[in-house]
Design brief:
Chain lengths: ~70, ~725
C-alpha cells in the first residue's frame, strides 16, 4: 500500500481519474493527512480518504497525492 | 473578536429574524424568505454559484409582488435595497469567495470539524461533555449526525487524525467521549429528535437502511417530507448491522438509534429488495418523487483460485458476517484460514474465534506494515490468539470427499516493480506449503450488487463499478435519483456514508423545491461557541489520554460481549478538558510572533501551532517568562488569548488554559492598578537610566507620578 493512515500528503495536481470533479481543482496544493486509506485490498486504483487543512475531507484518487513525510 | 460587519452575513441574520419581527404570516411569503435565507447561507459559507444572486433577486421580486402579505412585501423591498446597496460585496462573496470584512472567514471551523465527513461541531460538544452537559452535547452532534452512539463505537475518527492536540502529545479521544455522552443521554431519556418542519406532502423513497440511508431519512423527515425506507434485510443497519460484529457494536445500540428515526415518522419496509420486490416504476406510481440509493457494497470478491467453488466450507467474509449478525451461531470449522489483511478479515477471524474455532489464521500476502486493517484491531486480534501468516499467497483450496482440508500457499517476498512506488509480493518458487484448514473465508474486498439496477440503464456507473454522482449534491445521472455511501465510494467508512446521506437529503430538499443546487461541498457549520473554562497550564499538560478498559481476554474469546468497556465519568470529563479549543484559536501564531519578536520576551512555547513542522510546546513555560504585558491578547484576532484582572491577579489564558497568573501592583498613592512586578521591571529595563528609582513607599501610577513630578523634578513617569 502506498498510503498509510496518518501520513502527511499534498495534493500535487489534478487527476485524470473520472472521479476528479472540477471543484477539486481548488484542492491542488493543499496539505493534509490520510485518514482512511483503502482498508480492504491495498488497491492502488481505489479512492482514499484525505483530510485537507482548511478544506475538509475528500475521497481522492491516489495519483493526485504525494507524501510529505 | 473582529469588530467588522459583513453585509452578507448581516443580511442573513436579519432575514432570519424577519418573519417574527415583521409579522410575515402568509405561508408563501414565509417559504420565500426561507428559500432566500438558504441561498444567502450558501453565499456566506462559500458554496454559491452564478445563479444564486439572480435567484435571490427573483424571489425578492416575488415577495414584493405578492400583495397578500404586507410583512412579506416589506421583506422583499428591504432585500432589494440590501442587494443594490451591497451589490459589490455580494458579488465578491460569490465570485471570489472572499469576505473582505473577514467575518465569514471567522466562522472557519476547527480542524477536527473540518475533518469530519459529516461536519460535526466537535469542539462544542467536547466542551459540553467537559462541563457534564451530555444531553446538550448529543443535541449538538445530532444536528449533523443522527447516529452518535454508533459512531462513538465504530467511527474511523478522521477528527482525531487532525486533532491539534496530537501535535502536543496524543489526540483527544473524541470518539469515546461521544459514546459516553450518547449512552448517558439515552439513559437520561434526553436523546431527543430536533423539531420537524410541517408536512410538505412530498414523498421520498430511501433504498437501503444502512448509515447513509438512515442519515438521509432523518434529515428528509426533518424537512417535513414523507419518507419510506426499503431494506432487503429483515432489520435496519446495513453494513453496521451485518458487517460489524456485535463485540464492537451491540445491535441494541443500532435499534435504539433507528427507533429515534422512526419516531420522526419514517416508515421502514424490511425484506424488500429494490429491483426484485419493487422498482422505480412501481414506486413512482405510489407518488414518490425522489429516490436515494444507499445500498452499500455487500458482495464479496472471489479469490479466483483452484478449488474455491468446489467446497461448501469456502465462504465470502461478508456473507459469513451477515449470517452471524442475523443470528447464526454455527462454528465454521475448527481450523479456519481467513484470506486478506483488511478490517473485514480481522472481523471475520475474531468472529470465528467467538464461534468456537480452535485455530484461526489470517493469511496475508504482504507484511504487517502493509496490512490495511486498523492497528488497534490487529493488536486486539493478536491478543485474542489469532495467528498471522504473512507474505503468504494463496494458490489453491485443497480437499477431499467434499470437505476442505487445507489451503495451499506460496511464500512471497516484497519487490519493487519498475515504474511503481509500491512494493508488490512476488511468490518464491518452490516455497509452496499447506495450511491445514477445514474452513476458508475470503476477505479480499467487497463490491456492489449491480444486477438490481439493470432496469435503470440511464444510471451511470464508474469503472470501479460504483454509482457515478456529483459529490457535492450526490445527484446521479438520472434526475431525481441521488446516491451515497459504499455504493458511491466503494467500501468506505460509516461517517462518510452519514455525511453523504446528509448532503443528499439537503440536495433532495432543494430538488423538490426547485432551488438551485450548491456548486461547492458544504462547509461545516459551527453550532455554537461554548465559553472557555479555566484549566491550569500544568493540568493541561499533565492530563493524558486514558487507556480504554477492555473485556477480559477469556470472555473476549468466547462471547460476543462488547470488548471496549468505555471510560468512567471522571476519565471522560478529564479527557474532554484536554481539548485545545481550536474553534476559537485559529493558530495564526500572531501571539508567538509578537511576544518573541516585538516584545523580545519569548514566553509562548506554542510549537503545535504549525501543522507541518510542529516544534516544542509547553504551556508551563509562559509562567516562567511572561511579563503580563498583554501584547499577545491585544493582537489576537479571535479572542482566544485573553488577559484580564481577576481580584488582585492578572491572568493570561489561551482558550481557557491559564498560562500565567501574577499579582497586581497598585499605585501607592491612589490605589489604581499599574501592572505586575515583572511588567514594571520590563518597562524600567527598557527605559534604562530614564526610569525613576523605585520609591520605598511604593510605585506610582502615571497620574500620581506626573503630579508628584511637579514637585520633585528628579521623578520620571513610568509609562506603559
Amino acid at each position: 500500500m502506498t498510503f498509510h493512515k496518518g501520513q502527511l500528503v499534498r495534493v500535487k495536481g489534478r487527476s485524470s481519474d473520472e472521479s476528479w470533479e472540477s471543484y477539486m481543482d481548488s484542492l491542488v496544493g493543499s496539505r493534509g493527512m490520510v485518514t482512511d486509506p483503502d482498508t480492504q485490498i491495498n488497491d492502488p486504483d481505489s479512492l482514499i480518504e484525505v483530510s485537507l487543512e482548511d478544506k475538509g475531507t475528500f475521497r481522492l484518487p491516489q495519483d493526485c497525492l504525494e507524501i510529505l513525510d | 473578536m473582529s469588530e467588522n460587519t459583513c453585509p452578507v452575513h448581516q443580511t442573513l441574520l436579519e432575514l432570519r429574524a424577519f418573519p417574527s419581527t415583521h409579522r410575515i404570516v402568509h405561508p408563501r411569503s414565509r417559504r420565500l424568505v426561507e428559500e432566500i435565507a438558504t441561498l444567502i447561507e450558501d453565499i456566506v459559507t462559500s458554496r454559491a454559484g452564478g445563479e444564486h444572486l439572480p435567484s435571490i433577486a427573483a424571489r425578492a421580486d416575488e415577495l414584493v409582488g405578492f400583495a397578500g402579505d404586507s410583512g412579506g412585501m416589506a421583506a422583499g423591498a428591504w432585500l432589494r435595497e440590501r442587494l443594490t446597496e451591497h451589490a459589490e460585496v455580494f458579488r465578491s462573496h460569490v465570485e471570489h469567495r472572499n469576505c473582505a470584512a473577514s467575518v465569514c472567514d471567522h466562522l472557519t471551523p476547527a480542524p477536527c470539524q473540518m475533518a469530519c465527513p459529516a461536519g460535526i461541531d466537535v469542539p462544542t460538544y467536547v466542551s459540553l461533555i467537559a462541563l457534564g452537559h451530555d444531553d446538550e452535547a448529543i443535541e449538538v452532534i445530532r444536528r449533523d449526525n443522527p447516529l452518535p452512539w454508533v459512531c462513538g463505537l465504530v467511527c474511523t475518527r478522521p477528527c482525531e487524525m487532525m486533532c491539534v492536540r496530537k501535535r502536543l502529545d496524543t489526540p483527544v479521544s473524541i470518539k469515546f467521549l461521544k459514546a459516553f455522552a450518547a449512552e448517558r443521554a439515552m439513559s437520561w431519556g434526553c436523546y431527543d429528535n430536533p423539531p420537524q418542519a410541517p408536512a410538505s406532502g412530498r414523498k421520498v423513497c430511501v433504498i437501503g437502511a444502512g448509515p447513509g440511508g438512515l442519515s438521509a431519512a432523518y434529515y428528509l423527515a426533518q424537512h417535513g417530507h414523507t419518507v419510506r425506507v426499503i431494506e432487503a434485510l429483515p432489520r435496519a443497519g446495513g453494513m453496521i448491522l451485518v458487517g460489524i460484529p456485535r463485540y464492537r457494536l451491540p445491535s441494541d445500540i443500532i435499534d435504539r438509534e433507528v427507533a429515534k428515526i422512526e419516531d420522526l415518522g419514517v416508515e421502514f419496509r424490511y425484506n424488500t429488495r429494490f429491483g426484485k420486490d419493487v422498482d422505480l416504476d412501481s414506486l413512482r406510481a405510489e407518488g414518490f418523487e425522489a429516490f436515494f440509493f444507499a445500498i452499500g457494497a455487500h458482495a464479496s470478491y472471489s479469490l479466483g483460485i483452484e478449488g474455491e467453488n468446489d467446497f461448501p466450507q469456502v465462504h465470502g467474509a461478508v456473507d459469513f458476517l451477515q449470517r452471524v449478525a442475523l443470528g447464526e451461531r454455527r462454528c465454521p470449522g475448527k481450523h479456519v484460514v481467513v484470506i486478506g489483511g483488511g478490517n473485514v478479515a480481522i472481523d471475520a477471524a475474531r468472529t470465528c474465534l467467538r464461534l468456537g474455532s480452535q485455530q484461526v489464521t489470517i493469511a496475508y500476502r504482504r507484511t504487517r506494515r502493509e496490512m490495511p486493517a486498523d492497528h488497534e484491531e490487529v493488536e486486539q486480534a493478536e491478543e485474542e490468539g489469532i495467528h498471522f501468516e504473512l507474505l503468504t499467497v494463496p494458490m489453491a483450496v485443497v480437499g477431499e470427499e467434499g470437505r476442505v482440508t487445507a489451503l495451499r500457499c506460496l511464500k512471497a517476498k516484497l519487490v519493487t516493480v519498475p515504474g511503481s512506488n509500491r512494493q508488490s509480493p512476488k511468490p518464491i518458487e518452490g516455497s509452496d506449503y499447506e495450511i491445514p484448514a477445514d474452513a476458508i473465508i475470503s476477505a479480499i474486498g467487497q463490491r456492489i450488487e449491480r444486477q438490481w439496477f439493470d432496469k435503470i440503464p440511464e444510471l451511470a456507473w464508474t469503472h470501479r463499478d460504483t454509482i457515478r454522482v456529483n459529490t457535492i449534491t450526490m445527484e446521479t445521472s438520472v434526475p431525481g435519483i441521488f446516491a451515497a455511501g459504499d455504493a458511491v465510494t466503494g467500501p468506505a467508512t460509516v461517517i462518510e456514508a452519514i455525511g453523504g446521506g446528509k448532503r443528499a437529503a439537503m440536495a433532495i430538499d432543494r430538488y423538490l423545491g426547485a432551488i438551485p443546487q450548491p456548486k461547492l461541498p458544504p462547509v461545516p457549520v459551527r453550532q455554537q461557541r461554548v465559553a472557555c473554562f479555566d484549566v491550569p497550564a500544568n493540568t493541561k499538560m499533565a492530563l493524558k489520554r486514558p487507556e480504554m478498559p477492555l473485556l477480559g481476554i477469556d470472555r473476549r474469546r468466547t462471547t460476543f460481549q462488547q470488548v471496549e468497556l468505555g471510560y468512567s465519568e471522571n476519565q471522560t470529563r478529564e479527557e474532554a478538558r484536554r481539548c485545545l479549543r481550536c474553534d476559537i484559536c485559529r493558530r495564526c501564531g500572531k501571539c508567538v510572533t509578537i511576544c518573541k519578536e516585538k516584545m523580545g520576551v519569548d514566553a509562548l512555547a506554542l510549537g503545535y501551532l504549525s501543522f507541518e513542522h510542529p516544534e516544542e510546546s509547553d504551556f508551563r513555560r509562559t509562567e516562567q517568562r511572561c511579563i503580563s504585558c498583554g501584547a499577545c491578547a491585544a493582537n489576537c484576532p479571535t479572542g482566544a488569548m485573553r488577559i484580564e484582572d481577576r481580584g488582585n491577579e492578572r491572568v493570561l489564558s489561551l482558550c481557557g488554559t491559564v498560562l500565567n497568573r501574577q499579582p497586581l501592583i497598585a499605585c501607592s498613592s491612589c490605589g489604581t492598578v499599574i501592572g505586575t512586578e515583572r511588567y514594571l521591571a520590563y518597562i524600567r529595563g527598557r527605559l534604562g537610566k530614564l526610569a525613576a528609582k523605585i520609591d520605598p513607599a511604593g510605585q506610582l501610577c502615571d497620574a500620581c507620578a506626573r503630579n508628584k513630578g511637579h514637585h520633585r523634578p528628579d521623578t520620571v513617569m513610568v509609562t506603559g
